[in-house]
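queue> holo job accepted (iron/sulfur cluster)
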Amino acid sequence: MRPFGYERAATADEALALHEDGAVYLGGGTNLVDLMRLGVATPSRLVDVARLPHDRVELEVDGGLVIGAAVTNSDLAADRSVREGHPVLAEAVLAGASGQIRNLATVGGNLLQRTRCSYFQDAAKPCNKRDPGSGCPAREGEHHNLAILGQSEACVATHPSDMAVALAALDASVRVRGRSGERVVPLEDFYRLPDGAPDRDTTLEPGELVTAVEVPPLGMPSRYRKVRERASFAFALVSVAAALEVGNGVVTGVRLALGGVAHRPWRARRAEDALRGAAATEESFLRAAEAELEAAEPLRDNAYKVPLARNLIVRTLMELGEGT
Ligand SMILES: Cc1cc2nc3c(=O)[nH]c(=O)nc-3n(C[C@H](O)[C@H](O)[C@H](O)COP(=O)(O)OP(=O)(O)OC[C@H]3O[C@@H](n4cnc5c(N)ncnc54)[C@H](O)[C@@H]3O)c2cc1C
Ligand code: SF4
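queue> job finished
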């Protein structure tokens, strides 16, 4: 048994004040409490932020969204403005976990959930992410579901969130409060590649609180597709969040992000560049997917993710193209 304190914050200011050294914020607890049971997370104090008044999805006049960090995953997926204006986000959330977990899990906690790498979750094993400098046994060991893009010698883990992949495609930003004020961080700058410091998943500073996610209007059809080992309760082997706009047979707008392939949601900029202005055909979609995946550096047992990602990108874009 490891003793720890528990405090429930009523406001963001109170949460910041309660966050002492060794404390962590508690959302729905569906990831953090598991990690505490495993001895991977050992906080001195939990600061419960699940009941802060950041519990609404607000629709802006331009069609953008401001999603409070305490909104549950279930409420987010059920929200009418999300389903109508940003269906890729609702689909991504519904592709994750189970109904019971989504009822508890919050937006802030979903963004900040930790990797499912089995060595990270086993406190008896070395792992650079959990214990910097101890090594990365996954590189030579069990890595069939780990990264093919952007990994480093120090870490080959993937980010597990489906929601974050959709938010990456949507050009979302994260609203963050710290003791020195508020800042808004584009999602691409919020998550990190592992480089030499895989213990840091994000660019959050110690004690900073996520209060909301800002999502600009989308205005084109969108879709989330996920391949996993079981039909539910399974993290992505590969997933694709895509939005596509076609005019006169030519791609006029496109957003593409991949999940299950990297330490952070992977915005597929090379594929997007290859697609803009190209004919909306299977051949163009395939060329774009190949342009993105040229940078892949698969490990011994996860090379299957390269053709899987290629085929999923092409299929998702074909489905979107057929609908326009
Ligand atoms: C069996 C199972 C299957 C799952 N399958 C999937 C899946 O397929 N796809 C998927 O995406 N997810 C999946 N999940 C993960 C699930 O989505 C996450 O556990 C959940 O979203 C975490 O949200 P939470 O509010 O419970 O976070 P918590 O567990 O409370 O917290 C997670 C982390 O976020 C931090 N945190 C929480 N709120 C804030 C805040 N406002 N500001 C700063 N830090 C904060 C905490 O300190 C902690 O580090 C699964 C989980 C389980 C148990
Ligand atoms: S891949 Fe990352 S999380 Fe997994 S063992 Fe290596 S350092 Fe740890």
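queue> DSSP finds twelve helices and twelve strands in the chain.
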